[in-house]
Amino acid sequence: MGRLRLAALLALSAGLAGATDLATPAEKVRSSLAEAGLEVAFDRAEAARLVGQAQGAYQTVEGEWQTADPAAAREVRAALTAADAAARTGNEIALNRAGAAAWTALLRGAYTGLEASVQSGNADAARDWLAAREFRVASPLTRLNADATGALEALAAGTLKPDAALKAVRSDVLDGYQARLNDALRELETSQARGFRTLAAGQAALAQGYFQLLRPAYVAQNGDAAAARLDTQFAGLPQTLGAVQASFAGFRAAPLSEREVTARASQVTRFLSLVPVEYARGVKLDGGRAVVTQEVEVGEARTFLGGAVSALADIAPLLPDGDAGRTLSSDFAALNASLSPQAMKAQPLTPATVETQVKTLLGDVRAAFPAEWQKADAGADLDVVRTQLDAVVAAAGAGEWAAAETARLDAYALLESGTEARIAVFNPELKAHLENLMWNGTAPTGLATLIKKQAPAGEFKATRAELQSTLKEIAKILGTEVAPAAVATNAGIIVFREGLEAVLILAALMGSLRRDSVRHLRRPMWLGAAAAFGATAVTWFVMQGALSLLGRYGEKLEAVVSVIAIGVLLLIMNWFFHQVYWTDRMASFQKHKHELTTGGNVLKAQWWGLAVLGFTSIYREGFETTLFLQSLVLQAGAASVLGGTAVGLALVIGVGVAVFKWQAKLPMKKLLIWTGVLIAAVLAVMVGNTVHTLQLVGWLPVHPLPFTLPASLGLWLGLHATWEGVLLQVGSVVAVVGSFFAAEALKTRELRQRQRGAAVHS
Fold first, then answer.
1. Could you report the per-residue pLDDT of 638-691, keeping only the tens digit for each?
2. Which of 26, 58, 151, 647 shows the smallest number of beta carbons within 10 Å?
3. CA distance readout (Å), 293 to 289, 296, 299
4. Which residues contact 588 (CB under 8 A, 6 or more apart)?
5. b or e along 70-88 (b: 16 or more beta carbons within 10 Å of the residue's beta carbon)?
6. What is d(CA 605, CA 603) in angstroms, rounded to the nearest whole number?
7. Is the Cβ–Cβ distance between 708 and 700 less than 8 Å?
């Protein structure tokens, strides 16, 4: 299954002018020996021919290997000779061992040549040697590392010195070879347990060969004596497997940085927690027996579990308690085996069983991992998002539209509750573009629209490609170091931005309730606002345990709450204009005052309307703020976020106090006009953002303006470049202004009627 992962590099290395193709002959040696190992039990002559083919391929580049690493070159030649003898005698075990020895000796010689070329600053030769490398096994959750390639390009451009380039190359390449060594040891353990002697012999030889690649790093960290003991233990495989694993514990040829350790630890918990979610979607109970109903979902569960196993393998040797690391690795492997296709075919586990096992593992992980490892890493979320987006494309290609929509919502839930908090502050245009791609944008068409119209696979791939590019840009933002001060600043900006809109609404509406006769109507608005604060706090704690469930419908919930808020605001605003503003100037005010204070059902309706307005004004912003702050807590802890939140709230309160003080100094006529203008402005922002949300979720059509607008205008003013948004914003302002003038007209008409009536009576 893609042992080399050289395919992406072969064409490049062969196509470069003047480049020496070292990768193709090396791959020919490996593939020919692998085929010979399969043929030897059936046709010795064909096996011998294939070994001869490998010898011929090696002869074309033997001079380069002899120059770079004479010892490795001799080992390749000796291994090929041994392979030829084994093929002719039909010795399957010896042939597999010889093939593994030849391949790892080739890799060692190539790595020696790579290091020498980088140290001398010869980027062209280094590219040739780098092409003959082996990567760690890739999966949807583990991308191939391109640090070595980037370092060589920087070396060639003169922007990176040889010493720095060599450090990057070593970290990248040796990390891949250590991952291969770990894979070989795991396969050896499995093969030995199942009695596969030939496969076990090949894996033992591979492990021994990979160790020779890593041996200089092992000597540097543990000394010559320890390396010599490990040489003896590797030579005794598979009987000495336990001793090898014990000696290898805690060693990393390319030590992980603190950030990389945290990222892998986050991947372990994030990926593992998603296993029972996906498994439960694909396995149902039928008469008490578990039955696979959606193989795609079961495959997703296996993918996430495989990602967790891979991440754990990288950091388990670094655990302070070595026994805990080995126990975790064993328990993860046991769960992995129970979800294998073979085990699932015999008898699938029930979803409840898988959930219980995963909860136990998560508890063990949290107990074993140091506290500094358990800070969530946003990069792990992006890995999950990428996997879910791949699942969207795969499900759409198979015509499984419900599964495609589920995967899309899962991906968006992570984005909304994880990454948007930071990109909304630093790059609002990128946030808007991301939302359009996930929902109902155009050019390219958003995923929600594609799923709804069951578009062909080509359109999904185009959107997926654009998403991949966008996620790379996001990764650059998330990849910067997160200082506590920066997180606190982000939190403060988010709280201030979201809270300002709510405060302005309340300040505008309550400013018209200053007279003693109607001051009591402020109380329901304050009670509604207080209830919203309580509901926001409850939402915070609920999201701690069910973030993905709530997050996946975040935009739709926000849309519903926003529509309610606008509707209530329009009703209450109309009531203000027609019952409060203009009655103040009428001679019959005392009669209306009596109705307001003793109006029975009318008063109750007004009371509840004001309470609902107070609630929706605060909770609409509180819900979104809660989602955003969750990710910041995971990135830097609660202390920094709470500090920034406190500053943001203080600023919001300061604005509110200033507004009320300003109102107190205004005469009623100016207050009426000022409040009306403020309501119109705030309502326009609410309408603009609500229309945008409704368009995102597909509840309103999208007709773009012939020009674009900065995304920051959308965040602060609700201005989005669509005809629907602009026209409805204008309409909302017209409604406010029209209601005011309608109230004034009614006031004037009634005054004239009273004047005429008074004249008649006189």
1. 677 778 888 888 888 887 777 666 655 545 455 556 655 666 776 777 788 778
2. 647
3. 12, 9, 12
4. none
5. eebbebbbebbebbbebbe
6. 5
7. no
